[in-house]
Amino acid sequence: MLYPWHQSLWQSWQQLLGQGRLHHAVLLLSAKGSGREVLAKQLAKTVLCQNCDTEPCGVCHSCQLFAAETHPDFHIVKPEQEGKQIGVDAIRQCNRWAVETSQLAGQRVIMIEHADAMGEAGANAILKTLEEPPSGCQFILTAQSLDSLLPTIVSRCNKWRLTTPDEQDVKRWVEKQLMQSIKIEAVRLNNGAPLATMQFVEQGQDIRHGNLIDAFAAFLQPPYIGIYDVAGLCSGEGITSLKWLSYFMVDCIKLQQGVSEYLVHGESLAKVQTVAGLVPPAVLIQQVRKINELHRMLEKQRGLNTDLLLVEWLTGFLGENNSVS
Ligand SMILES: [Zn+2]
Which of 1, 77, 78, 234 has the least CB density, counted as fewest CB within 10 Å? Predict the structure, then answer.
């Protein structure tokens, strides 16, 4: 089932499919948590359907195999783990699939999820196939943004950006799904992505986020105790919590500069004000930079002593030059 925010892009694709004009290599760009794989698979299922050109009929042999995830002409390649690269061998496999004949005497679809995780060698290996794919072969690539994609890949694809709804609409949609009211803060912490926001609330991260911000604001007030509480809450939550702290400090910096609109933590303004009043701007700026670095580092190298690194980062608020006054 497609989500409401998929509809307009889907209709554009349907039109092109109906006219037989859909590009052989489609690149779908969208934020994490917007359900783009659902949309990409809907396209794949439609291309493969034996009865209909513009939507999957749901009853043909192809549609049934697709639903059972055993379609012999549908292939997916993605990183083995989030944040990892797609190996060049997996990309070479795509090239082999591309030249195979269809087992159902129809089209073949090759989907590359997180195409931005292709390394340079992988990207180079697929370029020729993307440029001139064998007939009856449809490529669907997905990625979060153009930033991390190699321009050579981008130039060979037909780009489509899935826009997420307005944040008030996201809020209303999540509230309807969960039958509870949520804060706009939850939407903003998840970059406006509806599914990510829903998961955030469902998994109780909204509550743990609140607890972390409380502990952090409390730690920054004399007598500066509770450093291990903050570190413990962060390492219990995982590296996402570093992003939360980063967003919170950016809000404090904005407030110090007189900007009070569009804060992520607009609903926790009192806490933002407290910390903005306690910690000098230069310290906040430096600490944001450091926690973002720490986030990148922990993302790449799992298994580091997160607690220790966080405590070290938190002491940065107490250093002699940084004295929290
Ligand atoms: Zn069908």
Answer: 1
